[in-house]
Design brief:
Distance between the termini: 43 Å
CATH topology of the largest domain: Spore Coat Polysaccharide Biosynthesis Protein SpsA, Chain A
Number of helices: 15
Oligomer: single chain
CATH superfamily of the largest domain: Spore Coat Polysaccharide Biosynthesis Protein SpsA, Chain A
CATH architecture of the largest domain: Alpha-Beta Complex
Number of domains: 2
């Protein structure tokens, strides 16, 4: 077992201080020896108390402006000294043994390039709550348990990764630094959203990652509070403004996924050609899901584009995505027949998801 690994924990905060200290303390109070990890906090504000705590724990605090999230993460990774990069959103927390587990997992094999753990849901006060919020992935991974995906990636593995939600929640992701370094420029300039999906596909596309590890251990506390349950709720009384906010949100996701697809289609590796075909299909599924959703609120949408994107989404889908395929096709057909009604229903449901 390699005992020389070093971990960099990157914490991101944008316009939010309420939970940041709890996140920082959860990193500080780890069972892993503090000589084996560092903390880098990226935020767009200055706070003497928070900055003092970070300095007192020999951490790094970087103040940035209004750059896209990819630029934030680029700055943190560029500044990091670790072999392994671990992410934490400002409103989430780590369980005390999270970094110890990550250290042991990556030390167990040099071929592991990406790790994702399960999470528990907490409320604004930090108390665990029972909720149906995206329960499917947790139920799947608890039933399946710890599993690994070795390349080449097959459709069977792709289904498992989708069902486990293996790229959901940045605070559940750890990735080998060598996996992401070649793509830092794209991260900085093109990733304005879906950053969790970006790092996941970095690992699937990288020759530095031979094994993906998905863990059923609940090592992340994911906080549910009004600001992250629905970022659109404040505009719910203004239908036009709500549609605009959802459109802007989906457009950022779509453009970021376009960039990920461009990375994937630019790869040529005969040794991994079968794997690359599956990964490109996975990216296409994520991309066309966003395109179909975007069509629901895009003023420039037309019948031909709606049907074309729905059909393309269907072609990219996997066996386990059958219910999603039917949902997309039905929604698109309804949009063609009743565009305004379908848009209103979509907006209402999307805003409360």
């Amino acid at each position: 077992m390699d005992r020389t690994l070093f971990i960099s924990v990157i914490v991101t905060a944008f316009n939010r201080k309420e939970f940041l200290l709890s996140a920082i303390y959860s990193v500080l109070n780890q069972t892993l020896d503090k000589s084996k990890y560092e903390i880098i906090v990226l935020k767009n504000f200055q706070d003497e108390k928070i900055d003092g705590i970070i300095k007192g724990m020999n951490g790094v605090s970087l103040r940035l402006g209004t750059e896209i999230i990819g630029s934030y993460l680029f700055a943190g990774i560029e500044r990091s000294s670790g072999d392994i990069i671990v992410f934490l959103d400002d409103d989430d927390e780590f369980m005390k043994d999270k970094l110890q587990t990550i250290y042991e997992v990556f030390s167990s094999s040099p071929e592991i390039g990406y790790y994702h753990n399960d999470r528990i849901i907490i409320d604004a006060s930090g108390n665990e709550i029972l909720t149906s919020f995206r329960r499917f992935e947790t139920d799947f991974i608890q039933k399946t348990g710890h599993f690994i995906v070795e390349k080449p990636v097959t459709e069977k593995y792709a289904n498992m990764l989708f069902n486990a939600g293996a790229y959901g929640y940045m605070s559940s992701i750890a990735v080998k630094k060598s996996v992401v370094v070649p793509l830092l420029t794209q991260l900085k300039t093109s990733i304005a959203s879906v950053q969790d999906i970006f790092f996941f596909y970095c690992a699937l596309l990288s020759t530095e990652c031979r094994i993906i590890a998905v863990d059923s251990k609940k090592l992340t506390k994911y906080r549910l509070h009004p600001a992250n349950v629905s970022q659109f709720s404040y505009a719910i009384d203004n239908q036009t403004e709500l549609e605009k906010k959802i459109f802007e949100f989906l457009l950022r996701e779509k453009k970021s996924l376009d960039a990920i697809m461009e990375i994937a289609t630019g790869r040529e590796n005969m040794e991994q050609e079968k794997s690359l075909k599956v990964v490109r299909k996975m990216i296409g599924y994520d991309l066309y899901l966003r395109k179909v959703n975007l069509n629901m609120v895009d003023p420039s949408s037309n019948r031909r584009r709606v049907i074309s994107d729905a059909i393309t989404f269907f072609r990219y889908s996997f066996r386990s995505r059958f219910i999603g395929q039917v949902n997309i096709v039905v929604r698109s057909v309804l949009w063609v027949i009743f565009p305004n009604t379908t848009k209103r229903i979509f907006v209402k449901r999307f805003a409360k998801r």
